[in-house]
Structures are given as C-alpha cells and as structure tokens.
Amino acid sequence: MKQYVTVINIVILAFELGCLAGSAKEATIDRLDDAAIGPASVNNPLFTFLMQQPVTSKWIKINASLYEGPTKSIYYFDKEQLYKVGDNTGGDLVLKDKYNNIIYKKNAIYDPQGNITGYSERCNLIYNEYGQLIGYTEYCRDSTGNIIKIKILKDGVLTIDIPQELKNKIQTYTDDEILKMDPDYVRFLTKDKLESLNSSTFDVIQAYFSTEQVQQLSKNYIHLLSGDNIARLSLNQIGLLHAQDFNSWSQDQINGLTREQMDYISDATIQQLNWTTIGKMNEKLSDDQIHLLSKNQVYGLSPDNISKLTLAQVSGLDAYQLNYFDSGQISALSQEQIQS
C-alpha cells in the first residue's frame, strides 16, 4: 500500500540536503525516485518524488530504499518514513530497521595479503518465521566499487547476473583469461564464444555451463560434453546424432543419456551401433531396442539383456557368434532360447 509521506518525515534530511524542509513537497509515494543506483548528479537526480528541487550532488543511492548522505550517514525508506539507520565507516557494515531487522550487510573481501579486493553487499533481506534467511539481493563489487556480479535469492532459487558491459567484455577474453575469470561468468559466454575455445578450455569450464548454453551447441561440439551435460541435451540435438557419433562416446557420456533421450534414438541408429557401444548402453537399452539388435551386436549385451533376446535372435546365432559369449552370457540363456 502506498503511504503518505509528510514534510515532518524529511526534516531529518534538511541539514545534509542543504535545503529548507519547507522546500519539500507532500506526496503519496512508495519510492523516493526512479534514479539509478549510484551518485546523485544532474542526469541522475535523487528524491524527485519527495523534493521540489531534487538532489544532484553529494548523495549516493545504495539501492531502492537506502541512501548515503554527504556526512556518510545512511537513511532508509520503508514506505512509511525516511530515517537514519547508521553510518558508513568504510569497513564492514550491518544496518537494521526500526524493528531490529537486518536490512543491509556490507562485507569487505580480502586477498591473502590482507588487501581489500572488493565488497559484498546484501539488501532486501527476507526471513521466515523461524529467523532463517530465505531471500536477498547481493551486489558484488570490485575494489573501486564497480558491480561485477548480482545474486538474487527468491523462492529458494538463486539467480546470478552481471552488468551488460561485463557480458560484452568477456566475449573478447582469451582462453587463458577465461580460465582465470570468475566461474559464474561462464554462463554468460555466447554460443559463438564457446565454440571458438580450444577443447581443453572447453572441458575445464563446461561444469559451469547453463542448460541453455548446452542446448545451443552445434552438433560438432556435442562430443566434447561430459555425461552430466549430455543429460541436458535437447531431443532435437539427440535426433541430429548418428551411430558413428554414439560409437565415439565414452562410458561417462553414454551414462549421461536419459531414458527420454534413449527412446528418441531412431531404430535405424540403434541397429548401426557397434557391439562395444551396445555394451556401454547395457543399462540404458529398452527391451524393444534389444529386440532390434543383429547377431553382430549382441556380443556387448550383459547376461540380463542376453536373457531378453527373442527366440528368433538366438536362433540366428551360429557357433562363431556363440564362441564369443563369455560364461555369464551363456549361463543367461534360457532353456527355451537354447532349444531354439
């Protein structure tokens, strides 16, 4: 609900604003301005919904509800009133509202030598009835104050974003620079950039790929994926693959195939797989897929799957094929299969 903000609410600002309280205008508002986060300026005026003459210098907008004045005092707007909640001393900072709820946390980040390399700022903190933190917005800044990452926790889901300027910049990074950058940045590399990397760099960073990135990859790059990322391939991507592609996969990659992906592989492709790939797929093959196999493919089947061969498949085996069966495979043949 929008709240009524009176002149009395902003009298506390009169000294630092350098203006008379009488110059403020009464208004029904739920925010103080539409300014961007950062210093006040002619192009980024603050308190436009509160003051007849907006503030264009000396103040800093920390977030939608917090403002830092010229004397480093910090004020909080809770949609009912604007009041002081603390002072920015340059170090770690914890601010609480009038109900003693934490509304802002700032922590310095240090390198091994004890030098400050950046800051972590959390605001919009939300707690459940048990006092557990269930939501927040976190701004990660470098030592000069530039935002380098934004984390938002909402409804149990953590999302990460970075400024557009930084998204553009990482597309120009070399392989070495990519290997050294924050792993959270990997998800913002474009398809073209990922496909321009050497295979070793691709392999190192793929643990940080998003599902969207995996599903944008061209067919020629699928063979570089780990089993975990194979599981994220779209059915359309699976449909582009041929037997020769699956025949080149490792056991880890085969293990990544989901039931839905296996079912999407065409019968013709299954019938063209070599027997070693069939062996890798033992735990993945459906009964229907086992029934498609030729006599030259069944060598790779486990004893459990040997027992699922049709009588027609078993009767098609000659001594040459049976001589390649191990004792476990032979033992798995049922009496009915043997008689066939």
Report the sheet-strand fraction: 15-25%
Contiguous low-pLDDT stretches (5 residues minimum) are: 1-8, 20-27
Number of helices: 20
Distance between the termini: 80 Å
Structural class: alpha+beta
Helical content (DSSP H or I, runs of 4+):
25-40%
C-alpha geometry = elongated
* Largest sheet composition: 6 strands, antiparallel
- Beta-strand segment tally: 13
Radius of gyration: 32 Å
Widest sheet: strand order?
8-9-10-11-12-13
* Mean pLDDT rating: 87
Give structural notes:
By secondary structure, the chain is α+β, with helices and mostly antiparallel strands. It is 31% helix and 21% strand. It has 20 helices and 13 strands. The chain has a 6-stranded antiparallel sheet, with no helix packed on it. Strands 3-4-5-6-7 form a 5-stranded antiparallel sheet, with no helix packed on it. Strand 9 and strand 10 form a beta hairpin. The longest helix is centred in the middle third of the chain and has 7 residues. The N terminus is likely disordered.
